[in-house]
């Protein structure tokens, strides 16, 4: 096979020989003055251009002094792993943490070719071992790898404008597809640490109203495809969701389903483990793009619900006077406050830092009590979409029945449907009943268990409602009696008298109380 890389070595001419010497004896430059060296370089290049019509582009693993690997190099690596390893004769196997099988890539000094729009290009992987005078315990880590792309100069435009773009886009997509999804958690001392994210939830098994589900899926799709749109409207490529609803309605399951649908990493941010606003910023800047940042039970995480209101109120409090008198106490209090994440710090992050760091991120808050949250936290713009996760409806039940019992229809569904409408049962409770308790229990037995549980829940709810209304009535009565007693005390009459008066007048208005505190009933005779 004719390969230009090899052709280079086969030049028997003086030019080839000179070029060969340059490559084989790179130290020759040390013995030649710089002016002559530059002249020689130019001459060699001119001659090479005449006889060697190929263009070479080098993509290094590390660019300049940067410690991080070049994104371009990694994208090419992924591209070549998928497209070239089948044609490569020498492969390199790398064991990747949390991956079950080793990942194969082109071995060092290996070459492969491919066709792009009927143009042939050659890729080669190369390794440069830098000469080092210092002793290193890990000499291998100093190897510098790079990819070489070779093509005929007639195709320069096609390769530089289309092919490289194609390789990078495809390479990034392949890398994203093949990566191990991660679940990050934060801890006070180490920042983020991660484990593989292996939650099996998906939108197919998520029980909820199908229309609502479709709407969420479309929203996510639109978000992932919206890079240009977000750039056009000048908005950071981020989206905020608020999931709210009673415990066991599937909020956490929904986040897992979203992460699996998008193939995003998940950052589970525990606000109570964040020391202060500065630490919060640091953690959030460290999150990568294509990720979901979730803050569960935001109402319980911190006093994010009303810190601003409370602070304002505190200014007028007597407590402050006490602190002013005791500076030590004040200092301790200030320290305690500054060692916490505050609502304003949090909001600043969402509006400011959040917008500045790398895009394609989703932030999700969950809460059981949406009404308790500070409106500033969940206003439009910060939280783009609110999703209510509610009690199990019949449509959601059908999905659970399919997941757990492998049935799409059953005569007992007719009994279950109205019961679900009359009771508030969470999907978590429904699934509990749909799971066979023993080997003898078949689908029908599970459905009967569910019917019993629904009936019991309905009975319980009725009993509770009755008790509540009785308690309310009792409370109202007690309030009325104590009000009458209070009034009697103030007016000096007996409670019975007040009651009688009250019954006649229907209550005494404040204006009708004389200066000496005696109530004058306004009775029309
Ligand atoms: N909508 C649902 N679809 C499928 N399974 C569900 C759904 N809701 C709850 N479940 C089941 O119930 C379990 C608990 O649900 P999940 O943890 O998602 O509830 P939650 O709303 O996050 O509750 P909490 O408010 O207590 O955090 C899940 O593991 C899942 O098996
Ligand atoms: Mg949850």
UniProtKB/TrEMBL annotation:
Annotated Basic and acidic residues bias: 462-502
Reaction(s) the record says it catalyses: ATP + H2O = ADP + phosphate + H(+)
Transmembrane segments: 7-28
Region called Disordered, residue ranges: 309-334, 462-525
Cofactor(s) needed for function: Mg(2+)
Every AAA+ ATPase domain range: 237-393
UniProt entry keywords in alphabetical sequence: ATP-binding, Hydrolase, Magnesium, Membrane, Nucleotide-binding, Transmembrane, Transmembrane helix
Biased composition (Acidic residues): 315-324
GO MF annotation list: ATP binding; ATP hydrolysis activity
One GO term of the biological process aspect: response to stress
Keyword RNA-binding: no
Domain of life: Eukaryota
Annotated Pfam families: AAA, AAA_assoc, AAA_lid_At3g28540
This protein's record includes keyword Disulfide bond: no
Similarity field: Belongs to the AAA ATPase family. BCS1 subfamily.
Protein name: AAA+ ATPase domain-containing protein
Protein source organism: Eucalyptus grandis (Flooded gum)
Lineage of the species this protein comes from: Eukaryota, Viridiplantae, Streptophyta, Embryophyta, Tracheophyta
